[in-house]
Structure prediction request, 480 residues.
Amino acid sequence: FLANTFRDCMATTFASDEPIETILLTSFSSKYPKALQSFQQNPRWLNSSSSTKPLAIVTPLHESHIQAAILCTNKHGMHLRVRSGGHDYEGLSYLSTYTPPSAFVMIDLNQLRSIHVNLPHETAWVQAGATLGELYYMISKASGVHGYPAGICPSVGVGGHISGGGFGTMLRKFGTAADHVVDAYLIDVNGNILDRKSMGEDLFWAIRGGTATSFGIILAWKIKLVRVPPVVTGFNIRRTLEEGATMLINKWQHVADKLHQDLFIRVVAQNHGGGGELGLEAKDCIEMSWIQSTLYFAGYNKWDPTEVLLNRITTYKSSFKAKSDFVMDPIPEIGLQGIWKMLLREDALAMVIMDPYGGRMNEISEYEIPFPHRKGNLYNIQYLVKWDDNSIEASNRHVNWMRMLYSYMTPYVSTSPRAAYANYRDLDLGRNQKHHIPYSEASAWGFKYFKENFKRLAQIKTRVDPNNFFRNEQSIPTLN
Ligand code: FDA
Prediction:
């Protein structure tokens, strides 16, 4: 019933000769399952009985379609979810786990993804539905010496990624993706389209790393490009435990954040694969352009056509559970050995990904934008386990293993708060179960993601969306 009411409301608001089905599918449509599943990255959620699917999917071709969807959902007591690239770790852009279930509509921005690079100004306007791969590709078409410091996986959407921070191989040199946003278009709860000037500096601060989805819908970001050399160098060295991997990681922990900021050395400890070369030699170093390095670090070959970056479907798609931590003091060798033991206990592909901080990250204040993880962090850890058997039993088993690993890590990582990265969303940290959740309850996870910035985020939320229309299980709460 509600789906049809929403459809009728959209049909009267939608000013076009085209049928409403051009942009709207209700859950009764035969095309709906494909549209729901097409860009989601974690199939774990689609089988889950504890999540609710959207009553309708709107794929706007124009910003007025989003304004109509805000108006119609608001009018009929529903809420919205927004999907750009569909990489949300807990599926919050297309599913809801509220109990009791709360009717919602999903806006899928995959048709709003134009990119305009302005080379003389070294900026670009990027619509929210574009992926990082599309952005990198368009920058490389305009210039061989410009880039953008964002994530490694090309199919990640800029809509979600930048609104949670966003980092990759240029983190130590330039900081996060959100640090390089200079303007944005956002649709607010009243359907107004705001830019930096009209939204004001407080709201503009909040959407750069403080989960924009709590404040409105990002239409586009204006980003500042960074200068990259015509040639960069990449290398990939594998070592097994027998070849001294633990000692190597131990050494890495003491130097990785202090090396020259042009150098970014990521460590991936994993239970499957590995073994091979010993020591870094000249032959391991591969010279390439920056755009080739985005291919190389995404798992392609540097000579693959750059058009593969335009593929919106990730090559990594499988069920997964992830968590994150920040390390402020080197983990003793015995602690590292314990990580290996835990990894070897898991039969599915499991990894501990360590990204060094330091460099530019030490120079940016933790209050500059809501992303607070700056000076004092040696490195970030992402724990990841991936599996193909999509049964509930398998899912529970792997998730339990992940929780054990997280518990094992407690003495070795940041405390008060035990910090976490908002883009590696983890509902184990806590969730809003109801329309209105007290700020004090939400603080359980809010301070982990945003530290002291959480309070300012809640103040801004209270001002711009007092009725909490833009909400999900980990959206910023109001202070009421
Ligand atoms: P999705 O569309 O699922 O959105 C994520 C969240 O943002 C949801 O809450 C959604 O509602 C909201 N949102 C989306 N579009 C919005 C809009 N236009 N306006 C307001 N809110 C919006 N991170 C990183 O920093 N570095 C990395 O290298 C990687 N690599 C990586 C690889 C893979 C395979 C995955 C699955 C994820 C990553 N990530 C990452 C994490 C990634 O940055 C994070 O999941 C982003 O939120 C994904 O943004 P999407 O737009 O793709 O997701």
Q: What stands out?
A: The chain has a mean pLDDT of 93. The longest strand covers residues 319-327. The chain is about 30% helix and 15% strand.
